[in-house]
Amino acid sequence: MHSLTLSDPSLLRTHHFINGQWVAGRSGLALPVHNPALHPTRPEALIAQVPDGNAADAQAALDAASAAFKLWRVRPAKERAQALKRWHALLLQHQDDLARLISLEQGKPLAEARGEVLYGASYIDWFAEEATRVYGDMLPAAVNGRRMMVLKEPVGVVAAITPWNFPLAMIARKIAPALAVGCCVVAKPAEDTPLTALALARLGELAGFPPGVLNVVTASREHTPAVVDVWLASPEVRKITFTGSTPVGQHLARASADTLKKLSLELGGNAPFIVFDDADLDAAVEGVMAAKFRNGGQTCVCPNRIYVQRGVMAAFSQKLAARVAALPVGPAQQPDSLIGPMINARAVEKIERHVQDALAKGAHLETGGQRLQGPGLDGPHYYAPTVLSGVTPDMALTQEETFGPVAPLFTFDTEDEVIAQANDTPFGLAAYFYSPNVRRIWRMASALECGIVGINEGAVASEAAPFGGVKASGYGREGSRYGLDDYLHTKYLCQGQLD
């Protein structure tokens, strides 16, 4: 087993967190957590084992959250805000330990993991401030002697289901607004990265969250449906917030229909990145590097299709290939590493399939295009950062999200042509384009079918901005003041006989 040294060893938790207690799983089964930088057969690849949860664990967490909600919802907003502020301060205090946990179980380089801790903490800080700003309205009365008011109330128990690629930021982005407005949470982190979520729960415990306000149940890929189905079937769960694949999101929407739950679904992406011939090419390359290669391309908003206008394709592809070829690949703990391992074998196999399909159909390999092994790269999950040119719509990576360090370049001629190609996908999460032309900027921003647009900018995420998509990329928003609405009901009060 990997020897994990933390400044605060209490952050490494290997039990469910239910009703303020660290408890073993009812099934007695264990879920191993591996370091993706090492071959899974090596003993030191095993970081820890957590419970492989079942329906009984899920029900216990739900019962605790339902009971806690009755008191948490009426806690003054200022007190909820203070609890979140304490949680935020503890994240900052333990950021190095949290970054080490993220790097070990998810694989991203340590510097990037530290960035994720600060990014996730920013949501907690933001929603701590917003907790005291959930305002209602006084409406103009329709007739004399009447008062018409609008109140905002917490929806109830929230089930949060989170992915592995940002194991701290994604769960913080869901828990913080829920707790801020008075909801209680049952959470199921991704099976590959449960340790970070459990560490967050430990810090919530230290911050003084009352028992049952935040509950975390871990489970394997095989047993996750048994856990989540309890929450889907229960009328006590009033909202599901999920980040992950579109097929799973569709299942959650169907299964939530009988109890009419509110849903926030942040699903798959297939982001276009468009470079016009009047763009600053160096800035556009920097934008691709920031947007595409963060977390090794394992983000839902990273560009999956890069469209370059014909007149600048040669210059742009040369500049980009040179930058990508120079990216250092290595395990997270290697100080100069910028690209870590992919999360698991399935991820590498999909990347490999997409690249081979593109090459077989006529794409040209500018750089990369292979698995990496050798000194310091002893695991099977490393893939060379890759640039492909001459990519066409009939290739698999055009319609499927690659989720890896592969930058495919498409050539286009006209603005109308690239708009049609950019929108020719079921997904609509993010899009990017580079051009200094103000008229074109407004035309493009209006025409692109997505929830997020980066205009001459590759790094768009912020706790102050609404995050979410359209079409098969889901609905609902996270972050910003708009992110509170999905955790609130609107109640209208009409009082008469006042004249």
TrEMBL record:
Q: Which UniProt keywords apply?
A: Oxidoreductase
Tell me the classification of the organism that encodes this protein. Bacteria, Pseudomonadati, Pseudomonadota, Betaproteobacteria, Burkholderiales
Identify its protein family.
Answer: Belongs to the aldehyde dehydrogenase family.
The record's annotation in PANTHER family points to: SUCCINATE-SEMIALDEHYDE DEHYDROGENASE, MITOCHONDRIAL
Active-site annotation: E266
Q: Where is the Aldehyde dehydrogenase domain?
A: 22-492
Entry keyword Oxidoreductase: yes
Q: Which Pfam families match?
A: Aldedh
UniProt superkingdom:
Bacteria
Q: What is this protein called?
A: NAD-dependent succinate-semialdehyde dehydrogenase
* CDD domains in the cross-refs: ALDH_F5_SSADH_GabD
Q: What SUPFAM superfamilies does this protein's entry cite?
A: ALDH-like
Q: Which InterPro entries match?
A: Ald_DH/histidinol_DH, Ald_DH_C, Ald_DH_CS_CYS, Ald_DH_CS_GLU, Ald_DH_N, Aldehyde_DH_dom, Aldehyde_DH_Superfamily
